[in-house]
Amino acid sequence: xxxxAFWDIEEAQDKAIQLLASFVxxxxxxxxxxxxxxxxxxxxxxxIGSLKIQVDGCSLLLxxxxxxLEQDVVVALDENVTSSLLETVRQHSENEELLSxxxxxxxxxxxxxxxxxxxxxxGVIPDLLSILRNFLHNEQICLSCCGVLWSLAAxxxxxxxxxxxxxxxxxxxxxxxxxQNGTVTESACSxxxxxxxxxxxxxxxxxPTTALLLDALRMNPERPVLAKNACLAxxxxxxxxxxxxxxxxMDSKGSGINLIKYAYHLHFDDPxxxxxxxxxxxxxxxxDDVVLDTLSQKMEELLSEIKSSFPSS
Length: 313
Known about the structure:
The protein is mainly α. It folds into two domains: 122 residues; 147 residues, Serine Threonine Protein Phosphatase 5, Tetratricopeptide repeat, CATH 1.25.40. It contains 20 helices and no strands. Helix 2 runs parallel beside helix 5. It is elongated and about 75 Å long.
């Protein structure tokens, strides 16, 4: 009632947000705090020029959503919330600290199909790409934006291909910049996988993207999630053309076949990694020229090993 009565007074709204933040650590307060999400975003929208309200509001929303996630509580955020967050992004496009908070929020809410659709409706993708270009060095921003791109591109709803195609070079730039950061690399690989599934990569993208994905796997072989994502993205590319398949087996830094053998030996006890490796091999052998190379590099030994470990496969 206080927030609604004094909605136009910046200091009143910020005091209310700070008071609410003091209750976040009390898990029993979560059901009440959830009812405030729209009021918090309304305060942010009303006082869009106030950096303090934007930072405090985003921080509080993040705390609330994190608590909800921990307690397995579903949070329904309508289009007003997503449009308000996008307004924050546009008004404060140069503030790295705030953008890091907002992008993390966007990643969390985009996991919901309804919220992802709302983000698509309000036209978030060009803004995300602009943020990535400006803050390519920021690991949290890159992680979050790639997570949102994956959610939007992986959606079954119609995707604006023209907009999504413009995400390919930016996502590749993220992967190139953060190859040594396994968490960011996992997120970028999943985004590239989703973009390739949507047919957003052009023929000119096939070779450099294949090389980048191989580099990601080469730099972070011990990470099972990255192995899954990279194999899925590579399989999707190989399905499209023989060009990435040839690059895969003849990469200047070493054959991709040796890489997936190594990945298998690291993660042989992870059925999902093994399944994705098998999917990649299946796409590889559709090309006659590639089959000859797989034989010369003793791929059949790997397949026999997988068969003996997973008799039902």
